[in-house]
Amino acid sequence: MTSIELIAELRSHANPANVAGMAQFGINPHDTLGVSIPVVRELAKRAGRDHALAAALWESGIHEARVLAALVDDPRWVTEEQMERWVTAFDSWDVCDQVCSNLFDRTPFAWDKTVAWSSRPEEFVKRAGFVLMAALAVHDKRASDQQFEALLPIIAREADDARNFVRKAVNWALRGIGKRNRALNTLAIATAQTIGAMPDKTARWVAADALRELTSDAVQARLR
Q: In Å, how far are 115, 130, 174, 179, 191 from 213, measured between CA atoms?
């Protein structure tokens, strides 16, 4: 399928009522069609992996086409330059999350970007750094505990960023690392306790929410 065909199909599923609903959840309505994620995923299955197709979909600027681009791109062909170009174009948390957890986390640059992006000032670039941490905790089965342990001081350092989309990603990263295995759970809980002792209310929220899940019976039973 070509980008023109895929975009035409996306437009055929456009739903203005969905756009309004998405906006209520903080999703940028600009160039958004209101197509549901299951429809986008089905189109991705039909299209298959295609790096050039992904580039064309991304360049369209259409919200759902950019989500689709992340699903059809081949991580083996993604360059560091592409990652930097795409991340600076993020204008919505869902595009950020879909790209990071379906594509960027599969690239050889993912670990370096968690560190680099987590210290950037732009809201969605910074979010991307922490979403990558959470995604790697789930998807990178070969990563060592030491690699994730090295990210915990970064999480603690940025836990006082009050911007909604950043603080939620910081929290997500902490919870994701803490659910990987028992050793990292112990370290993540200790990090959350350190964050919770900070005077900043955002940091205290990050800590309390993470501790609630990391110490829960469900998580502890699974890790046992």
A: 25, 18, 10, 9, 14
Where do we find the tokens 């295995």?
181
Rounded distance between C-alpha atoms, residue 39 and residue 33, angstroms: 12
d(CA 1, CA 84): 27
Q: Tens-of-pLDDT digits for all 224 residues of the chain?
A: 899 999 999 999 999 999 988 888 888 889 999 999 999 999 999 999 999 999 999 999 999 999 999 999 999 999 999 999 999 999 999 999 999 999 999 999 999 999 999 999 999 999 999 999 999 999 999 999 999 999 999 999 999 999 999 999 999 999 999 999 999 999 999 999 999 999 999 999 999 999 999 999 999 999 99
Is residue 44 classed exposed, middle or buried when 0-12, 13-18 and 19+ CB atoms within 10 A define those classes? buried
What's the DSSP call for residue 74? Answer: -
Query: How many degrees, rounded to 5, is the angle at CA 163 between CA 128 and CA 196?
Result: 95
* Lookup: tokens for 85: 């170009």
Confirm if 100 and 87 have CB atoms less than 8 A apart: no
